[in-house]
Amino acid sequence: MNLEDHINIIYENTYLNENINFLDLWKKVFQKIYPNKKPNFNDPGWMKRINKSFFLSKYFLSNIEMKGDVLECGVFKGFSSLLLIELEKLLNNHVINNYFLVDSFEGLSEILEEDKPKNKDVFRNQQGNLKANFEDVEKCFFEYQNVNILKGWIPNIFNVLDENNKYKFIHIDVDLYQPTLDTLNFFYDKVVEGGIIITDDYETPLFPGNKKAWQKFLFSRKISYFALPSGQAVIIKK
């Protein structure tokens, strides 16, 4: 039995609600982002990616009816944002809010000491890695009237946002220590009660700075959080 068989056993009949098949939705979004590529479900990395997408989707659904905007910091090619937007489109009787997608589209920012893996056998990213094409991402979201793509470096790009915006769902996927910390500092108090903040790389060996920034901010504010088995971590604001 190969890994793809396990993915099918776990997710083939997994529904996000009574009508939405998770794996079908995931595949649909993947093909839109990567029209000339097929996912290799026998690569263990794909299992991790699907797991993260599942948890992201479930938490997104948990407060879908709340008022507030949706924010993603660290867009890359737009997969996670498109997954949430397509999920929202499939729902009935829900509140449609603004989406703000923030990324430099210039790759990783400065690699600090906090970001360097202690294990020398772990791959070390360099500044500028993980660069995405801004125009390609714009094309993916062209049809959505409520999507705002903001190109620029964190935290300076945050200044273009309306300071009165309130957020119900924030996805942090900026990988590194400083932008993670800057994002939490800027947005935490703008999250509505019951709102959710989820970070992608809490337990990712490639990006130890994410966990350090997450813990530094939350411990300083005495905020509790939950570490997910997918390697993510999440806050439900009280």
Description:
This protein has a single domain, classed as Vaccinia Virus protein VP39 (Rossmann fold). 35% of the residues lie in helices and 15% in strands. A 7-stranded mixed beta sheet has the order 3-2-1-4-5-7-6, with helices on both faces. It starts with a helix and ends with a strand. With 238 residues, the chain is of the alpha/beta class.
Map the helices and strands:
Layout: H1 3-11, H2 22-33, H3 44-62, E1 69-73, H4 79-90, E2 99-103, H5 134-140, E3 147-151, E4 167-172, H6 177-187, E5 191-199, H7 208-221, E6 226-227, E7 233-236
Parallel strand pairs: 1-2, 1-4, 2-3, 4-5
Antiparallel strand pairs: 5-7, 6-7
Annotation keywords:
Rossmann fold, 238 residues, 7-stranded mixed sheet, 7 helices, alpha/beta, globular
Going by CATH, the architecture would be: 3-Layer(aba) Sandwich
Number of strands: 7
Largest sheet: 7 strands, mixed
Strand content: 15-25%
Q: What is the CA-atom radius of gyration, in angstroms?
A: 17 Å
CATH homology superfamily: Vaccinia Virus protein VP39
Summarize the structure.
The chain has 238 residues and is of the alpha/beta class.
